């Protein structure tokens, strides 16, 4: 039996607030948020893992490149379950890498490496895992975006207020790089 736990920013959650409790979540019923054109669903986060890792999915339509950013203390995994996603990563020596990932493909981004991605096919889904000494960043999505009870993509893109970009990312180990240029060709 799944219990629901309320949070100030969402009416109910299938995720227990405290660590050390086993739980199960049916497909799509994690904590959901809309951000731009995407649906982000969190299944496990810092609250449950004592900030060891998080587990979430991002689903979206074909679109623009997600802005370049980095995580100073967090490693990030991209595993594609549906569709296709182009991952851009710059290593610590400044060499840029680009790879089209399709269903079953995996990408790893070390901490401090600028990265971005672009959904290349409609209805693509990325399974994300992030871990590191700085904690986890899964609550970034609902704090920059907007929590939702809907199971699908937003009907209209959710664009955060400009002031949110100045405060929310810093709390979740996300540093946007607005002047970053990708030289990889795509």
TrEMBL record:
Residues 61-119 form the Cupin type-2 domain. SUPFAM superfamilies: RmlC-like cupins. This is Cupin type-2 domain-containing protein. CDD domains: cupin_QDO_N_C. It comes from the Bacteria. The lineage of its organism: Bacteria, Bacillati, Actinomycetota, Actinomycetes, Kitasatosporales. InterPro entries: Cupin_2, QDO-like, RmlC-like_jellyroll, RmlC_Cupin_sf.
